[in-house]
Design brief:
The relative contact order is 0.13. The longest helix has 32 residues. By secondary structure, the chain is an alpha/beta fold. The chain is flat, with a radius of gyration of 27 Å. Helix 1 runs antiparallel to helix 4, helix 2 crosses helix 3 and helix 3 packs antiparallel against helix 4. The chain has a six-stranded mixed sheet with strand order 3-2-1-4-5-6. It has three domains: 114 residues, no CATH class; 118 residues, Rossmann fold; 185 residues, no CATH class. The protein is built from 17 helices and ten strands.
Amino acid sequence: MTADNTVPPPGSVPSPAGPRRGGGGAAGAVSVVATPRGAPGQQTPPPLPLRRAPRPRTDVLLVAADGAAALAGVAAAAVPGPAAAALVAGVLALHAYAGLYRPHSIVAGGVLDEVPALAFRAAVAWCVLAAVLAALRPDLALGSGALAGACAAQLGASCCGRAAVYGVRRRRAARAPRSALVVGPPGAALRVTAALARRPLGGIRPVGVVVPVTAQPPDGAGVPVLRTIEEVQRAIIQNSVRDVLFTDADAADHSVLLSQLGAWGCTLWYVDTRAPVVAAGGRGGELAAFPVRRVQMTDVARPGFVVKRLLDLAVAVTALLLAAPVLLVCAALLRWSDGPGVVFRQERVGRDGHTFTLLKFRTLRPADAHEAATRWSVADDERMSRTGRIMRLTSLDELLNLWNVVRGDMSLVGPRPERPYFVAQFGQAHRGYLARHRMPVGITGLAQVQGLRGDTSIEDRARYDNYYIDHWSPWQDVCVLVRTAASLARPTGS
């Protein structure tokens, strides 16, 4: 719950809580310094638009392979049509829930690694089907032999089908490798770059190495060494980079660069270079010695997110209906005390950097559009009427945010949205601030129920917001809403 939001001094970033706490970076973390724009002799590339990083898509070929494998098991056990359809649907649902249809590594998949997961879920599906048939149709009950045979047939067919799909994927990737950047300490980054150059595993071709500004430039990199945000941005534009490999765990978890790359739509990977390098050969190539996993900037796109949206709609619509008389009274009081124009509209930054129009009751009429976009706090402004102060103190001015929730611009719980002017500044000054936009913004959030409202530390807010996102669950949303309702009984204003 923020203010309608004093113009900060030139070159400064508002940090109402004073010096930032915990500002030191983690040891070994990758840092990239942004050089001044328009510096002499430097051509700044055009800004990259913010866009959502591509989400892992469902692999239709793997779905088809597993569906055909389930049908092979059905044929082996001679299961009738309706039961067969239920089995196929159940197997595919179990595999999808386990994430077996989404890429977790740039390395082409290996069937042997998936055998335990495939076998377990096949056994679960067939045992459930056998129990249902025994209860409803005893004449169609499956014996232990038929059950084992069906499971074995399905597992064998699934392994063969997936092996064929992975083979096609490897050959296609080798013919058209994708450009990538490697980020990390010079030694580790060079190991990964050299392995990729010798054999472009997974269709990845390194086009640049990003190293800490404090590190010595590596020798023999074979690709450009990048040290500033502008150089990284230029490399992404020139080479159409869509994959970035981090070789440092701390950097992959905490770097500002990671958040910026995610905002530019790059897919982020973590390469564990602590594994020993083995001789090349076989299907994987040299990088197979380096475990690779996708860096999940957000884990909101999962079945639980549907629950979050349903909770938003149920609570927001109900609250709007119940609060309709209060809204009318607030509008009438503001019209009487402050004149026409009781609704305040302001551009805010939401999920994935997309902007939307935030609706609030107008508690102060700014002098001009510049003041509205750049003034940090109006809590002590003498121009504010008594009605406006009461509404801000009780947070009644933010009731109209519920309409943003209904429209889908916001959620009930999430990081509070800020104006583009401050997002740009805070993103440069506070590590991890941009990562807040992985999640739909909210009316309230974990930072707000911790008392971080109004003139409080931006860095602390970002820390709480990112913790909320990393540990998000529907139940956590319910807890935040309950704590918010309790806090309204002792309003402190914003």
